[in-house]
């Protein structure tokens, strides 16, 4: 029994200010993590939307550029008509070379001013198209490639000729000896019905350069948004990785961080210890997760000072991992666990004490964590503080052989009726004549020797085997006590009571038993707490059938006693080791007295086992304990 936790006075929970790195980083409020699959989907949607946006923006820009170019060409052609004028075309025979030259020079200045390649006017004299005026470029001057009045435009296209019969501007993209252009032809009609056109050309190279600018603008926009996307995704993955590998409650690394550290460790061989904080689940159930997480942070900070440069990792709610080099060895980690100050409170307001259990392993990093967990499980089963994995490799074959032998022995005993009941008396403190007998099973081997329960208890964890022995013990006890007025009890497990066939068997016995109120069915505290709701219903059902129910092995004090007292109980039996510290711990007796007052107020009998001396009996009787059990009262025997 954890006497220190029982002795603590009940205090209201106080919210302590915390100064954790996780709060500074803003990770304490992080409760949900976006799965990577959803992030990939979101990225795909974003990139698709970005592509659609860039493409749409490009085509909008391209359409605007083409509209501006068309307007520029129309403006140039219209301006050319203003410069040349209708009168120029009404009397073509009177045009002198000087006048043609003057018009060409004016059109050249216009083309440069409006940033087009050529502006010109033409007339159609079937079947040929003739120039009446035209601008020229510096290259034309250099190559002496100037157009003369009424020169035939031999490369006139069908589109150009059709423009003479159109009523609106006509656009064309075509090549000739002057280059590759986009052109506009605007028809004008003279009073005599003659049609001439004013035209303007823009090189395709110029057009493409303008479109290329729109492409560059779209690419710059896309690049900007894509870079911003990469920055956001990178920051997210950094944050996601941190939250994925960090225990948000304590700020230490979690199991994923440990597995990565082992995977990428420079040293292939390390030592690792998995440490279990025994009382943490009870602390959380009584004081809440905040206090439990603070306790774990204190424990991990304590070990962090000794394992540097290696980190301390939180594997589960109540388990942590310590890592050190192979040079320090397993015993270094074991000594850390054994030297942990269990006698000092690890947490203040309320004062909380914890005990540790550890499994230590060394060797290849790939199997290190699994081996340490196996060692811890063995330490829990053997109720030892530290267990080494290497030693388990030597002991396991022997233990397995022993377990197999015991299992066969128990099965044979059930089949051959070699199960016998032993009775341990429990005397009432207020009436020594009031005795209840606690019934336990013993096994006779083939030679007739009695095997105590502690020898075959390890293999009793098999539900079916335990149920067979329990049913046989129940049958023997009913036969023994049916015709008497003795009160008696026996222990059941959750797996047994949850078995519908076995529960029906118990129900039939209680219906036939003359005084079912004399029978008490006991359940272990750990079993009850693990299956609290289910056990509460089962206990109510047993009480409805007339039997009494009790919880045994109570050892967690105020941390869980309130939950236990909420059950429909008739008795509570404390842990067997309670009397070992009764003479040394002054607070223990007052704690038992405090617990007894709560039990008496609810009409629940408080039972203390393993009473060895009359002094202990008097102290417990004065504390208000209802019943006593132990060697001073009477040892277990096959007879009453």
From TrEMBL:
The entry's keywords: Membrane, Transmembrane, Transmembrane helix
Annotated transmembrane regions: 36-59, 218-239
Q: Under which name does UniProt file this protein?
A: EAL domain-containing protein
State a single Gene Ontology molecular function: cyclic-guanylate-specific phosphodiesterase activity
Give the matching PROSITE patterns: EAL
Positions of the EAL domain: 403-640
Q: Isomerase: present as a keyword of the record? A: no
**Recorded superkingdom:** Bacteria
- From which source organism is this entry? Pseudoalteromonas maricaloris
Q: Which InterPro entries match?
A: Cyclic-di-GMP_PDE-like, EAL_dom, EAL_sf, Nucleotide_cyclase, Rev_trsase/Diguanyl_cyclase
Q: Which SMART domains match?
A: EAL (SM00052)
């Amino acid at each position: 029994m954890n006497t220190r936790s029982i002795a603590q006075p009940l205090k209201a929970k106080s919210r302590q200010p915390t100064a954790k790195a996780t709060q500074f980083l803003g990770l304490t409020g992080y409760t949900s993590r976006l799965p990577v699959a959803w992030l990939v989907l979101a990225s795909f949607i974003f990139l698709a939307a970005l592509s659609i946006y860039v493409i749409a923006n490009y085509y909008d820009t391209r359409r605007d550029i083409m509209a501006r170019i068309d307007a520029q060409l129309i403006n140039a052609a219209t301006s050319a008509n203003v410069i040349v004028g209708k009168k120029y075309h009404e009397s073509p025979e009177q045009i002198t070379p000087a006048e043609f030259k003057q018009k060409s020079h004016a059109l050249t200045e216009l083309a440069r001013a409006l940033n087009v390649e050529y502006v010109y006017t033409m007339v159609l004299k079937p079947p040929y198209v003739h120039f009446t005026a035209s601008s020229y470029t510096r290259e034309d001057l250099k190559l002496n490639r100037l157009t003369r009045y009424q020169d035939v435009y031999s490369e006139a296209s069908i589109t150009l000729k059709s423009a003479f019969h159109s009523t609106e501007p006509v656009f064309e993209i075509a090549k000739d000896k002057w280059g590759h252009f986009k052109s506009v032809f605007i028809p004008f009609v003279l009073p005599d019905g003659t049609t001439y056109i004013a035209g303007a050309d823009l090189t395709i190279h110029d057009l493409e350069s303008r479109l290329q600018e729109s492409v560059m603008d779209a690419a710059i926009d896309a690049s900007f948004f894509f870079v911003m996307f990469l920055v956001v995704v990178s920051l997210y993955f950094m944050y996601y990785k941190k939250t994925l590998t960090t225990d948000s409650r304590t700020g230490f690394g979690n199991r994923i961080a440990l597995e990565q550290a082992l995977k990428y460790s420079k040293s292939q061989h390390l030592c690792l210890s998995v440490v279990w904080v025994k009382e943490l689940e009870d602390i959380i159930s009584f004081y809440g997760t905040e206090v439990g997480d603070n306790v774990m942070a204190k424990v991990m900070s304590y070990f962090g000072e000794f394992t540097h440069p290696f980190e301390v990792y939180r594997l589960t709610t109540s388990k942590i991992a310590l890592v050190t080099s192979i040079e320090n060895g397993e015993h270094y980690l074991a000594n850390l666990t054994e030297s942990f100050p269990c006698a000092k409170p690890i947490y203040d307001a309320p004062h909380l004490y914890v005990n540790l259990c550890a499994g230590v392993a060394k060797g290849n990093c790939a199997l290190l964590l699994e081996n340490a967990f196996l060692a811890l499980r063995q330490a829990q089963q053997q109720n030892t503080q530290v267990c080494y994995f290497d030693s388990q490799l030597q002991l396991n074959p022997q233990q397995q052989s022993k377990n197999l032998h015991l299992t066969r022995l128990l099965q044979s005993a059930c089949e051959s009726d070699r199960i016998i009941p032993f009775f341990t008396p429990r005397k009432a403190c207020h009436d020594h004549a009031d005795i209840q007998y606690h019934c336990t099973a013993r096994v006779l081997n083939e030679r007739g020797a009695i095997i105590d329960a502690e020898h075959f208890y390890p293999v009793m964890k098999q539900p079916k085997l335990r149920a067979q022995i329990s049913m046989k013990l129940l049958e023997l006890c009913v036969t023994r006590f049916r015709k008497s007025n003795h009160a008696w009890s026996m222990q059941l497990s959750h797996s047994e009571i949850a078995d519908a066939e076995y529960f029906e068997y118990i129900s039939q016995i209680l219906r036939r038993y003359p005084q079912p109120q004399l029978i008490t069915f006991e359940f272990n505290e750990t079993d009850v707490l693990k299956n609290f709701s289910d056990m509460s219903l089962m206990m109510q059902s047993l009480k409805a059938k007339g039997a009494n129910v009790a919880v045994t092995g109570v050892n967690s004090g105020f941390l869980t006693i309130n939950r236990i007292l909420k059950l429909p109980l008739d008795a509570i039996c404390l842990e067997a080791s309670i009397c070992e510290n009764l003479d040394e711990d002054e607070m223990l007796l007052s704690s038992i007295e405090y617990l007894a007052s709560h039990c008496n107020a609810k009409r629940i009998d408080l039972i203390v086992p393993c009473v060895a001396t009359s002094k202990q009996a008097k102290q417990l009787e004065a504390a208000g304990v209802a019943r006593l059990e132990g060697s001073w009262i009477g040892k277990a025997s096959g007879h009453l």
